[in-house]
Amino acid sequence: MSDKITLHYEVSPDDFTRAGEASSNVKSKLKKMGVNPEAVRKVAISMYEGEINMVIHALGGTIDVIISQEDIEMILKDKGPGIKDIDLAMQAGYSTAPDNIRSLGFGAGMGLPNMKKYSDEMEIESELGIGTTVTMKVKII
Amino acid sequence: MDKFFTSVHLNEDLCKGCINCIKRCPTQAIRVRNGKAVITKKFCIDCGECIRICPHHAKEATYDSLDVMEQYEYTVALPAPSLYGQFNNLEDVNIVLTALKKMGFDDVYEVSGAAELVSEMSRKYVTEHKEKWPIISTACPSVVRLIRVRFPNLIEHLIPISAPVDLAAKLARKKAMKETGLPKEKIGIIFISPCPAKVTAAKTPLGFEQSEIDAVIAMKEVYPKLLPYMKQSIDHVEELAISGKIGISWGSTGGEAGGLLTDNYLAADGIENVIRVLEDLEDQKFSQLEFIELNACAGGCVGGVLTVENPYAAKVKLQRLRKYMPVACNHVDDQVLEDVYWTDEVTYEPVFKIGIDMKESIAKMAQVDELCAKFPGLDCGSCGAPTCKALAEDIARGDAHERDCIHILREYIHKLSDEISMLDTKR
User: Which of B39, B115, B211, B257 could lock onto B247 through a cystine, CB 3.0 to 4.6 A?
Assistant: First the structure.
């Protein structure tokens, strides 16, 4: 019997209006499991920002979530254009989001900085023309 | 029902017959007669400016009292998204929705949920109807009524899709009938509104025969009742929310247009600004625009006259609430949607026309010019009309008399007193 729960999500690039559903889904599952509110919040925010990035910039991809007794691990993998300069992308306020979604609150350039802020561990691997994988961990107290 | 129902009424005891509302009305629909403000119903577009400006609080909005809930066996609340912006420190809209059920509603159906469906259908319509660009939103009943009486050339640009609240009412009723098995008449679909214009829209809709909204209650009356129930709900929240970013954003200016996922739009608010945009649009000054969102109230629906919070503060709160919501939670393929499109056309109502035909109009316009030349041009409002030109038009229509102008009256009295004193000396 496994001591972990694994969840898999396909993030579609075609329907922008469904962006954010995966993180919303994980959030309700974590609440049901009685995970402490602080951890739930951190997962919700960091995964949301990562998911939106995948839709806006990376032509969608997959998200795998592994929930154990100690932590929640999120692996966000895409086959998008890749990040040219990761340090620049991590800068608060730097955005390459298109204009047509800014009125919904996107494009402030806070996605990656927020992901770093709200996760306990974060790693980015990216190759131009191949894709990007972001791995984040949030500890359960 | 009356073709020109309006949702403003006067508390005559409080009305001082001052000039504030007559000057502020964007369609010059109000006159002071016998010391009291009187609205010409067919000119009124329900923008609420007179309610906002009246310093004596004599202008009141018409809406249903909370007691209306008791008339139905099963009630469903339709909260407008602007409701969520009224509260401080709100982190989860479900707290508001749970509290509504504690307050006495049997169920809730978020208007923002229907708004996302309207956004999706609007995206499709805008893409498929380039010939109608720029397309004008029809969610604000005031704006539709303004266009109906003053901008007939723009009627064809109106998007013929139900406003979110009307779609929400249809879907809520269907859901309630299915879940309870009750007949239509026993179910009360009750809208919690930020403005009185929606009362008019519910009673005399444009674009279709009948609204599925049974009653419209005021946000400002629900707010104080809801607070204690919200405190009770914090620890036992029911997951009743059905909408995402796009739905919530409809509550303030820019939200409806934002839901179209294009950057080729213009969003304007405040009735005077709306009129300016429409004038320019009529003169075809806007090419390249796909969509125009117009709201009679400054700030959008959060600025409605029945709200409690400052519209700009409410907008910030909505932005905070929507921040981590999915982009949209309601999609057309997941639903069976019928009757979302308008079934009736909006027809031009030339209420401002001064004569029955060209001949009469020409004669009356000449009369208006003649009168304007006589008047001092002070626009003082003492005659009860907002401007000298308006008084001249009233006279041409047969609704007023030259000597309503106190300056003309004063000259007349001078003349009379001269003649009387001459009579005296002649003896």
Answer: B115
